[in-house]
């Protein structure tokens, strides 16, 4: 039959060949990932097991207030939301390790909704879930109206898409930001956390954001994940910040970027949390406690070099990190290849696949 219909024959051959190639590529791609590391069970991690937290303990220097959203849905969309665990847990332990007690507040108080992304969870994040004190604080958050602003040396606004709905109009949030900023206390915010800044007016009548360099989750990051974001959110955060006079500092998608403008410190996305929290410590006049940089952070540095200087320079950095026995998270590099594919950037997709393969070969030959 197929001899009588050559077009059908060759079409079937092409489809089968393509499927075989896709399967082979998928197997090869999976083999590039750090499968052994991915199999490790970190769910039992405890703060006592993290030397950064248990060694060379710094005496108490004061208190920092972390603020999370109370919103459990994205407006009327029905999409669930909450605060991002990793954005709270990592900053929480940076502050703790540097001598600051952390209290957690939310617009409504009580137990706020939480977003846990299993793919992003690390030792610090699981330790946070197993930390009885941290869990009590996040299950019994202080209502914003009950916060005693004078008790804290800084405030940190945690991200999570819910923040877009209950941070901007909250009068107590606006009051704390205004008073802290004007008195020189540090105001920090990451990802969607900077939505807390959008309606803050200073005593001189000028908007807080006027001529301030800031970062937040970008339009590109938002719209890639939620194409209908414009109809779901009250505004796109990047647009809103810029419209109120901010100089918006946009970094590479889903990579570390922070802005430090005097006592205002803002970060673009969850991957900016480590650096943002340590920058807040610096702004308060202290040298951050030494911390071993994570494999995720090192992979982020590799990706930033790739973005700015190309593949060869990124490979040189991988060589350097491997030689210094510093971890490089190949999963993050591979994840960015997937992002490139989602954006239709085929050349970049294969470039990042090649970079993942290079990192694997170097880690195995060390």
UniProtKB/TrEMBL annotation:
Q: What superkingdom heads the lineage? A: Bacteria
What UniProt keywords are attached to this protein's entry? Glutamine amidotransferase, Lyase, Membrane, Stress response, Transmembrane, Transmembrane helix
Establish whether keyword Heme is in the entry.
no
**Hey, which family's this protein in?**
Belongs to the peptidase C56 family. HSP31-like subfamily.
| Keyword Lyase tagged | yes
Q: Where are the transmembrane segments?
A: 7-30
> What residues does the DJ-1/PfpI domain cover?
82-282
Q: What is the name attached to this protein's record?
A: Type 1 glutamine amidotransferase domain-containing protein
């Amino acid at each position: 039959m197929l001899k009588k219909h050559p077009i059908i024959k060759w079409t079937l051959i092409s489809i089968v060949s393509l499927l075989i190639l896709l399967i082979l590529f998928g197997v090869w791609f999976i083999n590039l990932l750090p499968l052994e590391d991915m199999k490790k069970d970190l769910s039992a991690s405890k703060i006592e097991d993290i030397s950064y937290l248990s060694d060379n303990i710094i005496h108490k220097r004061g208190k920092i207030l972390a603020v999370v959203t109370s919103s459990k849905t994205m407006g009327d969309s029905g999409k669930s939301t909450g605060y991002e665990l990793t954005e709270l847990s990592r900053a929480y332990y940076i502050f703790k390790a540097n001598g600051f007690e952390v209290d957690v507040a939310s617009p409504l108080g009580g137990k706020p909704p939480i977003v846990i992304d299993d793919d992003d969870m690390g030792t610090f994040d699981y330790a946070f879930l197993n930390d009885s004190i941290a869990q009590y604080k996040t299950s019994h958050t202080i209502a914003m109206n009950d916060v005693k602003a004078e008790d804290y040396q800084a405030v940190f606004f945690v991200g999570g898409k819910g923040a877009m709905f209950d941070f901007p109009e909250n009068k107590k949030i606006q009051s704390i930001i205004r008073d802290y900023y004007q008195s020189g206390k540090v105001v920090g915010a990451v990802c969607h956390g900077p939505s807390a800044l959008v309606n803050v007016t200073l005593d001189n009548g000028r908007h807080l954001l006027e001529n301030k360099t800031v970062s937040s989750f970008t339009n590109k990051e938002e719209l890639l994940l939620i194409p209908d974001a414009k109809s779901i959110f009250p505004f796109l955060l990047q647009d809103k910040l810029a419209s109120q006079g901010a100089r918006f500092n946009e970094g590479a998608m889903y990579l570390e970027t922070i802005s430090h403008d005097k006592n205002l410190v803002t970060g673009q996305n969850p991957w900016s949390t480590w650096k943002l929290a340590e920058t807040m410590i610096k702004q308060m006049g202290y040298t951050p406690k030494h911390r071993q940089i994570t494999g995720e952070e090192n992979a982020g540095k590799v990706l930033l070099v790739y973005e700015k200087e190309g593949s060869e320079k990124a490979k040189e950095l991988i060589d350097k990190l491997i030689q210094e026995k510093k971890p490089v998270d190949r999963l993050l590099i591979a994840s960015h290849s997937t992002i490139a594919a989602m954006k239709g950037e085929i050349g970049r997709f294969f470039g990042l696949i090649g970079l993942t393969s290079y990192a694997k070969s170097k880690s195995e030959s060390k």
